[in-house]
Give the backbone structure.
Amino acid sequence: MNKFRPTGITADRTQRVVKITWNDGHESSYPFAGLRAACPCAECRGGHENMGQPPDRRAVRDTVNEGINLEQVEAVGSYALQFRWSDGHLAGIYTWEFLRQACPCPVCLPES
Ligand SMILES: [Zn+2]
Ligand SMILES: [Zn+2]
């Protein structure tokens, strides 16, 4: 069961990050390039059998932005977001659970 829900979602196209505030007060900031790299769709995962894997927080944090921008964010029902990227890709459905697991902040991704 996923108890996490966003209370606020903003896309900052200057800093190229998506910011999500959660119902437990946690704040996440996702670089566009990292979110794009973590796209959970079958095409980006390399096949349906690879779908449903948890996101790689390090990749979300560290992927270098080589010009990716976010054109549009749309809610999918009440459970997910769909992003339209500047490369035209829009197949990824990012559920709340996935986004929370992808949070690259120092609390969720401590340096080791
Ligand atoms: Zn994809
Ligand atoms: Zn976090």
User: Anything to note?
Assistant: The chain has a mean pLDDT of 95.
